[in-house]
């Protein structure tokens, strides 16, 4: 009798539908010759965006210095560039020793949580969330506790609800700003309230700021570390989104605030960084040029810029639809689109996404993939050009129109 090879029990509650069954089905359809418009992943390279040329040149010029392992925290010029950026934003007293470079922010989310959590420890995470945060807490034997960011509040977190969720097992609070998947940019009042909770209970703040310069129509991004004094703040960012270089796999986390009280934790993180030897060295040579050079993202997010205009198509298309609703995204590269439940009381986001893929050849991410109980949302990216997005919403409208007709029949 053959043994069956079963996955670890740790994977039982782990989900990442952004690259899950629907995405696999879309790939299969593409292999069979269908043209799929894939809006499930924020991958700029897929839609023709390029990283700034200066970053590529910096990598090429330093390839001879990139063939060996580097320090487990990363090369000094990259870490020092992160320090300079943080200091320019008002985050003082940060040094290169407080910065860890990773193979994208994804790796660092895992490492920073692994260094902190004991079995049963709790981390407060927004709902909806970027599901890697929930998955990483779960895989590191912690418990993800979701705090609400309701659409009727513009998807801003509810600090009072966060405060009620704190228990003796709570170790940290995750803040994703600008937010993925909703595009919300958090107000200073909201951020200060979250900081007060974290400082009162001595919780680590994990501030995911990978979309920090992607804001629209005057929305103001506030680096959370500028508000934190009396607890530990971990700020995450990288080259993938603002600098359109997902494939370089370069992210970083910088620590500020109460670092002396966190010395043992940071030593544990250093140990984990050492165990994976180091992150991708060639890509690290692009960091200094990226952060210190011309910020071309500003051309894309202002009126007339491609990201701005694509976002506007989403807003206008939803406004013209009798079936859809959306809180206009103030930042990031996504929209969290809702379907009117009064029109479709039995709406199921998973079933809708499957129908949209099979019948209209458009791939979106169902809203419940982002750890929310609301089943009438889907997330799309505004990376395609405006004409492509107009076609997408024509197909969505046609599908919903047909489904509305079936209900009425």
Please tag this protein with its features:
single chain; 409 residues; alpha/beta; Aspartate Aminotransferase, domain 1; Aspartate Aminotransferase, domain 2; 2 domains; seven-stranded mixed β-sheet; four-stranded antiparallel β-sheet; 14 helices; 13 strands
Give a structural overview.
This protein has 409 residues and is α/β, with parallel strands linked by helices. It has 14 helices and 13 strands. The chain has two domains: 9-50 and 298-408, Aspartate Aminotransferase, domain 1 (Alpha-Beta Complex), CATH 3.90.1150; 53-292, Aspartate Aminotransferase, domain 2 (3-Layer(aba) Sandwich). A seven-stranded mixed beta sheet has the order 2-8-7-6-5-3-4. It is globular and about 65 Å long. The relative contact order is 0.16. The mean pLDDT is 94.
CATH class of the largest domain: Alpha Beta
Question: What's the number of helices?
Answer: 14
Query: How many domains, in number, for the residues?
Result: 2
Which strand order does the major sheet show? Answer: 2-8-7-6-5-3-4
Mean pLDDT: 94
Order of helices and strands: HEHHEHEHEHEHEEEHHHHHEEHEEEH
Helix content: 25-40%
- Beta strand %: 15-25%
Poorly predicted sequence stretches spanning 5 or more consecutive residues: none
Named CATH architecture of the largest domain: 3-Layer(aba) Sandwich
**Computed structural class:** alpha/beta
End-to-end Cα distance = 54 Å
Number of DSSP strands?
13
CATH structural fold name of the largest domain: Aspartate Aminotransferase, domain 2
CATH superfamily of the largest domain: Type I PLP-dependent aspartate aminotransferase-like (Major domain)
């Amino acid at each position: 009798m053959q043994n069956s090879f079963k996955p670890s029990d740790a994977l039982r509650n782990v989900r990442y539908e952004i690259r899950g069954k629907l995405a696999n089905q879309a790939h299969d359809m593409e292999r069979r010759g269908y043209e799929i418009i894939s809006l499930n992943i924020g991958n700029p390279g897929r839609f023709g965006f390029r990283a700034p040329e200066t970053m590529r040149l910096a990598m090429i010029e330093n390839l001879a210095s990139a063939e060996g392992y580097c320090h487990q925290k990363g090369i000094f010029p990259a870490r020092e560039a992160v320090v300079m950026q943080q200091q320019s934003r008002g985050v003082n007293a940060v040094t290169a020793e407080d910065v860890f470079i990773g193979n994208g922010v994804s790796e660092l989310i895992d490492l920073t949580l692994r260094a902190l959590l004991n079995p049963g420890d709790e981390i407060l995470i927004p709902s909806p969330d970027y599901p890697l945060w929930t998955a990483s807490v779960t895989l590191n034997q912690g418990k993800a506790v979701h705090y609400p960011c309701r659409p009727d509040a513009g998807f801003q977190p509810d600090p009072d609800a966060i405060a009620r969720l704190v228990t003796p097992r709570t170790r940290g609070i995750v803040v994703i700003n600008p937010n993925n998947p909703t595009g919300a940019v958090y107000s200073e009042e909201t951020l200060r309230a979250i900081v007060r909770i974290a400082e009162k209970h001595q919780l680590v703040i994990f501030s995911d700021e990978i979309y920090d310069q992607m804001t629209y129509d005057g929305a103001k991004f506030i680096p959370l570390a500028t508000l934190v004094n009396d607890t530990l703040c971990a700020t995450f960012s990288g080259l993938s989104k603002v600098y359109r270089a997902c494939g370089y796999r370069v992210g970083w986390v910088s620590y500020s605030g109460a670092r002396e009280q966190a010395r043992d934790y940071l030593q544990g993180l250093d140990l984990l960084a050492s165990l994976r030897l180091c992150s991708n060295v060639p890509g690290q040579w692009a960091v200094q040029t990226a952060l210190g050079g011309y910020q071309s993202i500003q051309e894309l997010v202002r009126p007339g810029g491609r990201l701005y205009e694509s976002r506007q198509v989403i807003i206008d298309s939803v406004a013209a639809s009798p079936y859809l609703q959306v809180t206009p995204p103030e930042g990031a590269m996504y929209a969290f689109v809702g379907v009117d439940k009064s029109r479709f009381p039995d709406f199921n986001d998973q079933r809708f996404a499957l129908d949209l893929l099979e019948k209209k050849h458009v791939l979106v991410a169902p809203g419940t993939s982002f750890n929310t109980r609301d089943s009438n949302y889907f997330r799309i990216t505004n990376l395609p050009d405006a004409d492509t997005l107009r076609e997408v919403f024509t197909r969505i409208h046609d599908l919903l129109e047909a489904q509305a007709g079936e209900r009425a029949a």
